[in-house]
């Protein structure tokens, strides 16, 4: 096994790539600056180490065997990965994080988030490199789960966190905006034709649809559920909307997410006695308690996202744009 590993060097893989592209040992030798006999010797050494025949020499040409084809394909993939690793290491040294995890609450506009991701990947830090090289990871959370992902270190940035809490040390919090909620039911739900405002005594007789909090360690939040009320629990805000349109229950929904459904008549909004004030949301990120030697206190990738979130237009789009044609986010 050790001999095989020592044989599969970048030089050996580059040699295989050259022979495969040019179709002959002589042409590959010229490109690599070697004499043909030295290249032939290197190929035989590689074949001996792997104990396989890489080229069929009976035709007088460098015709790859099945094993040779496999090594050529895998070798090219490994060379590309080596280049990618080298580029990422270089970018980390210049301040770009190797990865950045963003926790996003389910009420935030996915359309706007993906447009921001497109803009991020389209950046070119310098003329020799395409994109910043930072690997993005988006994770969807619900209620306290968004906070938990950030404070537990599973995320570097959280968008859509409740802003009514005091952030712990090492967490910076900024306002995102207000998210209005409406009480909505399907047109054929018994509450759809009931006189308004609807009392709690009437609401408790009807099943509510709730989104499960994604928090595992923090205390999960329960919002607008009445004692003794039947509850149908789903995993996401989108699933809650679908459930209520199917008359599986009732409940409050983010107004921007259901605006199109209300206008189309798929949902009916109703006034209830308990009401619900708009929810103030924010965005938060992890900060270094003390700058580490030889490392920027804030990575360039996180800095780029925070710069986008400083824009009022971007913050509004994250709360409002849940339907319609994509628009550019400046």
TrEMBL record:
The keyword Transcription regulation applies. Gene3D superfamilies: 3.40.190.290, Winged helix-like DNA-binding domain superfamily/Winged helix DNA-binding domain (1.10.10.10). Residues 8-65 form the HTH lysR-type domain. The keyword DNA-binding applies. Keywords: DNA-binding, Transcription, Transcription regulation. Pfam families: HTH_1, LysR_substrate. InterPro entries: LysR_HTH_N, LysR_subst-bd, WH-like_DNA-bd_sf, WH_DNA-bd_sf. Belongs to the LysR transcriptional regulatory family. This is LysR family transcriptional regulator.
